[in-house]
């Protein structure tokens, strides 16, 4: 009996078992990665319909934009909002997404909110969303140095859009009025109510009428606009300060997420092969365990698995490299 057992053990093709299970494991990992990245890849594909950048180019753009402060979901949602606003070239989308993210970081919001709520409201009040960068510092100062948040300004712009256009009130002028009202001790709710009521008054025909109705002198108004225009702290400064709290582990996680998104896009063309490889790998492992030689088909299996296994190994190597490059910071993070 012992001799028979040894003979049976010797007949087992361990290399075949390892190869079959390895192929099945690689296919399983690829299938999971495709499933995890599918929602994002579908969103990117929808944005790419009918505009200049291709699906691959938009995927690259998302990878370039996203980091520990601007995750992939926020980046994709931001691009989708910008697409709806009429931005269609790769350069326009990139510039506007970066500006949206900077302002979002500066005021504690998100790129999705800036692009989906603020920009349409700016357009409604007569401002060009393309000029967001020109107004970022003012909006960041208002949100950080007064009791008003970006959402307060957005609501005021949206609800009083027609009146603001008629009065010739842009972002800087409206922000200056809010800053002056707060200096007088008004909280944000009272300020918004007072402003909406006054701006909508039929007797108020222009900016001068508005200032008079709010009892703001021309000198006070000019002081506020000058203070914002000459402020030493910019939106980029506020954003940098806010982002300083992120750890190296956040940066590493963002880099790995970008690798996975790119790999998911690459593996999509081989998605039909994945279940075949997974099933075939298990079958070969079973045959090998039963003592059936599968040496002749291992080469074919390796060739079939290569489109899946090689990218996965590349990502594994890239992740290891990132961990090595950040080894000192990681040691400090977990110390």
How would you characterize the overall build of this protein?
- This protein is mainly alpha-helical and 335 residues long.
- 78% of the residues lie in helices and 0% in strands.
- The chain is built from 18 helices and no strands.
Topology:
Elements: H1 2-11, H2 14-48, H3 55-65, H4 72-84, H5 90-107, H6 111-124, H7 132-145, H8 150-159, H9 161-167, H10 171-183, H11 188-199, H12 207-213, H13 218-229, H14 235-243, H15 248-267, H16 273-289, H17 295-325, H18 327-333
Helix pairs in contact: 2-4, 2-15, 2-16, 2-17, 3-5, 3-15, 4-5, 4-6, 5-6, 5-7, 5-14, 6-8, 7-10, 10-13, 15-17, 16-17
Strand content: under 5%
What is the count of DSSP helices, taking H or I runs of 4+ residues?
Answer: 18
Distance between the termini: 56 Å
Question: What level of helicity do the residues show?
Answer: over 70%
Average pLDDT metric: 77
The oligomeric state of the chains shown is single chain
The largest pleated sheet is described as:
none
Give the uncertain stretches in residue-range form: 1-7, 291-299, 312-327
User: What is Rg?
Assistant: 29 Å
Order of helices and strands: HHHHHHHHHHHHHHHHHH
Shape: elongated
- SS-based structural class? mainly alpha
Number of E-type strands = 0
Task: Summarize this structure as a short list of keywords or feature phrases.
335 residues, disordered N terminus
Quick take:
This protein has 335 residues and is mainly α. The protein contains 18 helices and no strands.
